[in-house]
Design a protein that fits this description.
This protein is mainly beta. The chain contains two helices and twelve strands. Strands 1, 2, 4, 5, 8, 9, 10, 11 and 12 form a nine-stranded antiparallel sheet that branches. Strands 3-6-7 form a three-stranded antiparallel sheet, with no helix packed on it. Strand 9 and strand 10 form a beta hairpin. The longest helix has 20 residues, at 200-219. The protein is globular and about 45 Å long. The protein starts with a strand and ends with a helix. The relative contact order is 0.24. Residues 10-20 and 198-204 have low confidence and may be disordered.
Length: 220
């Protein structure tokens, strides 16, 4: 048994933040995540059978398994993850998400079983090995930043990531572990806030003044 461990690495981003160093801020609760990015909702994927190899699309997200795997399945695989659209991977837990629009925040819940009862809910289905996952955030082909998560056993571990630069792809790689099952679900994401141009308040004040002048002119 271990407590969840989180670690982040900052790298130089590209795209909208090409000239600044990007950072990944990690949160361990939904409340902290939404305090940083605003309200979010869970993205669910259609249930699928074991060893699915075709990508799955839900709104702006496209889910696919990663290198070294033989596919994935979506269903009720963990009581520690809300809903019945949990992700399970056949092989090492390597998978990826593509975002149709640039975002700067992503979150999920991870469940790491510690017992093997075969192919069943919250079961390793192999020798149980405690895992570490590398989350890499890309803007096109350029790495924006990365973070590691080592989830605690037998609980739903919330992992939120807020980047200072936008990204449109997430690649998850199991850097420590084996073919035993870990489960993923409750995916959430958020886009960067759209800044108000510095000149907008002056423009709004001028427009209001012009409107008042016109009203006085009509009355006069």
């Amino acid at each position: 048994m271990r407590n969840a461990v989180f670690a982040a690495t900052a790298l130089f981003g590209t795209g909208l933040a090409a000239s600044a160093q990007a950072s990944i801020t990690q949160t361990t609760t939904l409340a902290d995540f939404e305090a940083a990015v605003g309200a979010t909702s869970v993205v669910t994927f259609a249930q699928s059978t074991l060893n699915t190899t075709a990508p799955s699309v839900s709104g702006n997200l496209t889910l696919d398994s990663g290198p070294g795997t033989s596919g994935y399945a979506i269903g009720e695989w963990s009581a520690n993850i809300a809903g019945d659209t949990d992700l399970i991977i056949s092989g090492p837990e390597n998978w990826q998400l593509d975002f149709a629009v640039p975002v700067n925040a992503f979150a999920l819940v991870i469940s790491e079983p510690s017992t093997n009862t075969g192919l069943a809910v919250d079961s390793c289905n192999a020798q149980c090995i405690e895992s570490t996952f590398l989350f890499e955030f890309f803007d096109g082909a350029s790495l924006v930043g990365s973070a590691e998560v080592s989830p605690a056993d037998d609980t739903g571990v919330f992992a939120g990531f807020v980047a200072s630069a936008v990204f449109n792809r997430l690649v998850v790689t199991e850097t420590i572990g084996g073919i035993d099952n870990e489960l993923f679900g409750e995916f959430r994401f958020a886009g960067p806030a759209v800044p108000i141009p510095a000149a907008f308040p002056l423009f709004a004040a001028a427009a209001a003044g012009f409107g008042a002048w016109r009203r006085r002119s009509r009355l006069g």
